Structures are given as C-alpha cells and as structure tokens.
Amino acid sequence: MQNKFQFTCLIIFSIFLSIFFIPNSSVAVSYSIYSEITFPSEGGFTMAPAGSIDNVHHGWGSLNKLEGTGDYIYWEHLLNYNPPASLITSADLTLNLSDDNDCFWEFGFAWTEGQGWDFLGEIDTGSYALNVDLGELYDGSYYAGIGSAWGDFYLDVAKLTVNYESSPSAVPEPTTLFLLGTGLVGIGVFRKKSKK
Ligand SMILES: [Ca+2]
Ligand SMILES: [Ca+2]
Ligand SMILES: [Ca+2]
C-alpha cells in the first residue's frame, strides 16, 4: 500500500516537472537582418553585409543620380534566412534621397516587388519608407527601384530590414529529458519492488 502511494506520488512529480520545463524550449526569439546599399558620389556602390545585393541597373549618367524624367535605378537585395523565411514578422525598405535644389520641383516614383509602383511625391533631402510585400521575401531576394518623374535628385542609401522569429522548437531540452528519464526509472524500480 505504501509502495502504491509512493508510486503515484512519483508519477505526479514527474508529470509536474515535465509540464513545468517543456514551455521553456518553445519560446520564440526575435531577430532582424538587413541588406544595405550605399551609392557614393564618386560612382559605383558598396553593400553591407558583403554579398547582400546584386543586379544593380540604371538608366543614364551617374549611377547615384536620377538625372531627369525617365532615368532610373533598380537593384536586388539578397538575404540568407536561418531559420526559415516563413517566420518573418515584418520588413521595411528605407531610401535616403537628397536634392541639390537646382530646380524648383523634383518628383520621384518607386517600384517594389509585389507592391508595384508608388508615387513618392516631391523629393527633398530625407528618408522615404516603402512598403515591402512579405510574400516576395521568401525566395531570399527582393527587387526594388526608383525613377525620376521630373527633375534630378540622388539616391544615397537603400536599406532593407527584415524582422523574424526563431522557430519554436518541439524538441524537449536535455533537462526535461533527464527529469523524465529519472521519473521513468523510478517508476520501474517501484513497480519491481511492489511485485516482490
Ligand atoms: Ca542616372
Ligand atoms: Ca523575391
Ligand atoms: Ca535637383
């Protein structure tokens, strides 16, 4: 009778410990990654982290300058996802544009993958935030571009930031396994004893 009572207590204790420790292994952790292109006035571009962009194309004249109506720049952000891209929670694309105030008005438009065309309005010196279609990030590549509708202005920096969560793991932690194992061994011992 005493063995039976101890046996029941051990089972309850094991279950309690398992329930208490398992949720710790499924906490999602937030991360963010980015891909940033800088267009210096001397030409060309730099990328951070290295290898995070590809396929930069432009219309005419300087790469960093939208020279007038119809001139454009477009590029591709390349991203490595670990854990999987399905855990993306949000993303934003920020463009730093500048204007030399050489004419009265400049107007720009932007294009982003999945979102299409977006009129930026009058271009002044500052940050312009563009919507990002999360569904288009899953392949690890995101295309964007800007063009001049009227006047000239500069693209200084384009930065894509992607926020995501770690995959909640269904695998029990070693501590949980140890406690569960100890409980099961204990159950086995008591069963043996009660049979005698
Ligand atoms: Ca140009
Ligand atoms: Ca894509
Ligand atoms: Ca200008």
| Helical run tally | 2
Report the strand count.
11
Q: Say which molecules are bound, naming each kind only once.
A: calcium ion
CATH architecture title of the largest domain: Sandwich
Give a quick precis of the structure:
The protein has two domains: 2-24 and 170-195; 29-166, Jelly Rolls. Helices cover 21% and strands 40% of the residues. It is built from two helices and eleven strands; from the N terminus they run αβββββββββββα.
Please explain how this structure is put together.
With 196 residues, this protein is of the alpha+beta class. It has 2 domains: 2-24 and 170-195; 29-166, Jelly Rolls, CATH 2.60.120. The chain is built from 2 helices and 11 strands; from the N terminus they run H-E-E-E-E-E-E-E-E-E-E-E-H. The protein has helices spanning 2-21, 174-195; strands at 30-38, 46-48, 53-58, 65-66, 72-78, 88-98, 107-112, 116-122, 126-130, 141-150, 153-165. Strands 1, 2, 4, 6, 9 and 11 form a 6-stranded antiparallel sheet that branches. It starts with a helix and ends with a helix. The relative contact order is 0.25. The mean pLDDT is 82. The chain binds calcium ion (CA) (3 copies). Residues 58-62, 65-67, 71 line the site of one calcium ion (CA).
